[in-house]
Amino acid sequence: MELTSGTRTTAGLAGLGTLAGLALTLHGMVRDNLPRAVGGTCTTMTALTLLALTLIRYWIVNTREERRILAAAQREAQAERTRYIAAQAALECEQGRLNRDMTMARQSMAGDLLAEREAMRDHFEEKRAELISETMEATFRMFRDGKFAPDTSPVTGQLIRFPRQEQAAVQHGRSREHGIVGP
Predict the structure, then answer these.
(1) Which of helix, strand or coil describes residue 45?
(2) What's the pLDDT tens digit per position in 94-129?
(3) What pTM was computed for the model?
(4) Where are the domains of the chain?
(5) Distance (Å, rounded) from C-alpha 61 to C-alpha 4?
(6) Is 14 within 8 Å of 50 (Cβ atoms)?
(7) Which of 50, 66, 45 is closest to 6 using CA atoms?
(8) Taking CA 66 as the corner, what is the angle to CA 65 and CA 70, rounded to the nearest 5 degrees?
């Protein structure tokens, strides 16, 4: 029991008061002196009450166990904080690595894309040149075979009139039929 100096002094004085009260009570009983016996009993009771109150105060004020629990909780919280900071640093490091990897992958893909685009352009130009060559050759054959010679056959066909023209022609024809001169 770790008591402060004031509490130890109070407990010591209460113990002395209890002993003095018991001695006074016994002396009063032996001498058949009632006031002395009652005074000793009251002193004993007061001293015991003071001792009890001192012990109760010590139990209330004693926070040693709570402080120990608090210190343990603080150490655990500090350890958790340290782990959290370490995990956060590891996460940031991993994010940085992933960002670098993604940047490198993007650059690599951009290079691959350029190379593929060049290959497609070359392939397109080859196909285009091949198609031009085939077209020129086919055109030359068609000229040679006479397929581009002008057509001398007379064009016979029927003229299709638009509705307005037909309507005007019908009205114009009607007006002449009845002997009226049209516009």
Answers:
(1) helix
(2) 999 999 999 999 999 999 999 999 999 999 999 999
(3) 0.39
(4) 1-62
(5) 11
(6) yes
(7) 50
(8) 120
